[in-house]
Design goal:
The structure holds two protein chains of two kinds. Chain A is an all-alpha fold. Chain A has helices at residues 8-11, 20-43, 48-60, 63-88, 96-113, 119-148, 152-172, 202-220, 222-232, 234-239, 244-271, 282-292, 300-321, 327-349; strands at residues 196-197, 200-201. The chains are: A mainly alpha, B alpha/beta.
């Protein structure tokens, strides 16, 4: 107990901002996950060193490799950020997948429909349309949580299925590419395709800039303070005059918009169209990445690059070492398990601190 | 024959507090012992020690003549100690019979022997005169019935000593009367009963002996024959530390806060503020005295916009304030030191600096438009930590790292910093060390001297007596009297608190 009185000069010393200890957990989790996966590869008869070497040289060994890695990372940064914004407000948005899908389809629609626009107008419009639809989907859960008390985990996961059904229906009917055998939308206009500068995709810079902006908003603005306060102690937030309902809804709208943007970026930068079964895992990977990045907007970036790199290098790894690309999914599952295990124990230990984000990151 | 429960000289210290200080207690078979005391008086610590959940620093606990072993909760239970918690431990979707046999089901092979279960339950409920319908589903039953199932659950395990933790808190008056009869019957059949409560008339009605705890110490053992409710109220709230507050005559101004015919329901939807009228003047401290649970908490929350006002109004300088809108009420001019500082007063994993601006975070100088001014927040924090003597290595440590007294100083500092016309202080010194109490008291007086109208609600009669200019006594949801503190007489106020002398 610190009952000693200290000189005012020392009182002004800000507390340590960067807590090394708390960042050790994700690093160790990744290393342990990789070691466990290595044992499996060994049992399977492959050489893990060859596999990892191939995985990482493909992902990070060349300019083209890094470009592909960053391309894969872009939607992951955004879906991780979407989950993190929710967690900051004490909301577990596991519907990033559905929000991402609706953003992807909406961006495909905007990319196909608007004609004759220059790229610098067409791309932002398509991105905004994607973000808007992601936001609407998440907003439904936010509204139900705020006004009807329905838990967001239930509504977001159910909306995942609903959105997937609707999106696939639209892609195979109203928005289907005419006179083609495959059920998918038409390719977007050239003006809506996001440029790649010397292997570096534009979308990645948008994602990183957004992560920086969210970090600044949470730490420095009154809106961020509202979100953080509601996430940490909603009773105190209410007492302090913060509208918990409004904050919950805004946090979900922001979270959904980011996820929707993630889908839009994927459509406009990688796939150029929407096809059913569009990148099924991206939104769920966001959960792993958000937790790996300790729910810190900037911490998400390295996490997303790591996972994105693994995804980018997986095919080549199979070619070089015979290890199936599904190994990356196994790695992610192990990482998620290892990252959450200590957090879950802590969550139950201080059950008085019921907020999911308490003590994480900042 | 040895006593059912024998607690001798138990002391338990936690960092900063002595939760139990040399407490001794005996319960014999067939006896109802009421354990009386405020929140934080040490009742739950004592019970945890009895169940072997915590290890006392010194002293001994014997059940049926043999000492208990720390950590052996199962052993304590198997020796016939049962407890009925305030929050029932029942499975709401199961039937009464299923709940009663849960964990010790009569079996036939691998199946539950329903017939045997029914017979056993019916025999049990006949034996103790506690009628229940074995087929009723718990969630459909009224609370009083659910409690009866809880009691039967304990009795089925052959309890000799039954501990009831605030059993009447959730009951209607009729259910309370029935429960008191049940308690007497159980005692008659030889069960020893420990009744934890702070409702004095129940104690008077049912207890053979009354043991009063205060601040961890046993302040006295008495019996309903030797005392009355007023005497019990005094034993419960009186403070052994004599508090000296230097207080000058109040310079009373006009009415600032006016409460008119206010009616408020508590969490159980029971009307707990039953038409309160109050007028609070500029430059005075109006103390609200009362035994806890008589509507004070609901009154404060309704005034501060945190609880729905069923009827009536709260006016500041003649203007009505919004219901259920703490922000609007704060803007209208009420500062509020909340009773539950951990829940409402602080965000414990925020820094002290952020907590000090919690309700002004979006106002100048702490925010310029949309952007928070971290420099101003830091400057304010450093100055406040110094001025309010908040003991911490840094103003940027988390509020959760502070001791209770220092946490409270953070809340008090924040609420006083704006110098709003009205200050509502609810239990401002609960769980706070003596040094901080004195500091907080002086802050309240100086707020008054600067012209604030202060409404002080406290379960500590001494605190009310030493700080207030006028004293309103609250009992059963009503203000039963308002007296000038110069004419206040401890005995008289104690009797009013107990609901006598209406």
């Amino acid at each position: 107990m610190s009952q000693t009185k200290v000189a005012p000069k020392e009182v002004g010393k800000p507390a340590k901002n960067f807590d090394v200890g708390s960042w050790l957990v994700p690093v160790i989790a990744v290393l342990v996950a990789m070691s466990l996966a290595a044992i499996l590869m060994r049992l399977q008869g492959s050489n893990p060193l060859t596999a990892y070497k191939s995985l990482f040289t493909t992902a990070f060994g060349s300019a083209a490799g890094i470009g592909a890695t960053l391309g894969k990372s872009t939607p992951l940064v955004l879906s991780g950020l979407a989950v993190a914004v929710g967690l900051r407000a004490g909301l577990f948005n596991i519907g990033a997948q559905g929000q991402l899908l609706s953003g992807a389809l909406a961006a495909a629609w905007a990319g196909v429909t608007f004609e004759g626009l220059p790229g610098y107008i067409h791309i932002p419009i398509a991105l905004i349309v994607g973000a808007f639809f992601g936001s609407i989907v998440a907003g439904i859960s936010g509204f139900l949580k705020a006004y009807r008390g329905v838990h967001e985990v239930i509504t977001t996961i159910m909306l995942n299925s609903i959105v997937m059904g609707i999106a696939d229906y639209l892609a195979s009917h109203q928005l289907r590419e005419p006179d083609q055998f495959l059920t998918r939308t038409s390719e977007i206009q050239a003006s809506a395709k996001m440029p790649v500068y010397a292997h570096l995709p534009l979308g990645f810079f948008i994602a990183v800039a957004l992560a920086g902006a969210i970090w600044w908003i949470l730490g420095r603005t009154t809106s961020g303070f509202r979100i953080e306060t509601v996430g940490r102690n909603r009773h105190a937030a209410w007492y302090a005059g913060i509208s918990v309902k409004r904050t919950v809804i805004s946090a979900m709208l922001i979270s959904g918009a980011i996820a929707g943007l993630g889908g839009a970026v994927e459509t406009l930068g990688i796939t150029y169209r929407y096809a059913p079964a569009f990148n099924l895992g991206l939104g769920f990977d966001g959960i792993t990445i958000a937790l790996l990045g300790r729910v810190h907007p900037l911490g998400i970036i390295p996490g997303a690059i790591l996972i994105g790199g693994m995804r980018a290098g997986a095919a080549n790894m199979q070619f070089d070492s015979g290890v199936a690309p599904e190994l990356v999914d196994l790695l992610m599952a192990l990482i998620l398990l290892l990252v959450t295990a200590p957090l879950i124990t802590r969550f139950f230990k201080n059950s008085s601190n019921k907020s999911m984000t308490s003590g994480w990151g900042s | 024959m040895s006593a059912l429960l024998e607690v001798t000289g138990v002391t338990k210290r936690y960092p900063g507090v002595v939760a139990n200080d040399n407490v001794s207690l005996t319960v014999n078979a067939g006896e109802v012992v009421a354990l009386l005391g405020e929140n934080g008086a040490g009742k739950s610590t004592l019970l945890k020690a009895v169940f072997g959940l915590i290890k006392p620093d010194s002293g001994e606990i014997k059940i049926g003549g043999t000492p208990i072993v720390f950590g052996d909760t199962a052993g304590v239970i198997s020796r016939g100690v049962g407890m009925v918690h305030q929050h029932f431990q029942l499975v709401p979707v199961m039937t009464v019979a299923e709940n009663l046999i849960l964990g010790d089901e009569p079996k036939r092979g691998i199946f539950i022997n329903k017939k045997a279960a029914y017979d056993e339950i019916i025999a049990l409920s006949k034996r103790y005169g506690l009628e229940v319908d074995p087929d009723a589903v718990i969630e459909d039953l009224p609370v009083g019935m659910q409690q009866r199932v809880e009691i039967l659950k304990a009795l089925r395990k052959d309890v000799k000593l039954l501990i009831l933790d605030e059993p009447t808190a959730v009951l209607t008056p009729q259910e309370i009367d029935e429960l008191l009869v049940v308690i007497r019957n159980l005692a008659k059949s030889g069960v020893g009963i420990v009744l934890i409560t702070h409702k004095l008339h129940e104690v008077m009605a049912v207890a053979d002996r009354v043991v009063v705890l205060r601040g961890g110490k046993l302040v006295g053992t008495t019996s309903p024959k030797e005392t009355d409710e007023a005497g019990l109220a005094q034993m419960m709230v009186g403070r052994s530390v004599v508090l000296q507050v230097n207080r000058t005559e109040a310079k009373r101004g006009g009415v600032v806060l006016e409460v008119k015919a206010l009616e408020v329901r508590d969490d159980r939807k029971i009307l707990s503020v039953k038409g309160v009228d109050l007028q609070l003047h500029k430059g005075e401290i109006l103390g609200v005295a009362g035994v806890e649970g008589n509507g004070q908490r609901e009154l404060v929350e309704a005034i501060c916009g945190m609880r729905h006002r069923e009827a009536g109004s709260v006016l500041i300088n003649g203007v009505a304030t919004k219901d259920m809108h703490p922000h609007a009420v704060h803007e209208a001019g009420i500062s509020h030191i909340p009773e539950d500082r951990e829940k409402h007063g602080l965000v414990s994993n925020y820094t002290i600096a952020d907590n000090l601006v919690l309700n002004q975070f979006d106002q100048a100088p702490f925010a310029k438009g949309w952007i928070r001014d971290l420099n101003e927040i830091a400057k304010n924090a450093i100055a406040t930590v110094e001025k309010f003597d908040i003991r911490t290595p840094s103003a940027f440590n988390t509020a959760g790292s502070l001791s209770g007294g220092n946490k409270q100083k953070v809340v008090v500092a924040r609420e006083l910093s704006e110098e709003l016309p009205v200050l509502v202080a609810a239990q401002p010194t609960r769980g706070v060390d003596v040094g901080s109490i004195e500091f907080i008291h002086n802050q309240l007086i100086s707020a008054r001297d600067k012209g604030a109208a202060v409404l002080l609600v406290s379960a500590e009669l001494d605190e009310i007596l030493s700080l207030s200019d006028r004293i309103a006594v609250m009992s059963d949801g009503k203000i039963v009297a308002i007296v000038d503190s110069k004419d206040a007489d401890r005995n008289y106020i104690g009797r009013l608190m107990a609901g006598l002398d209406k």
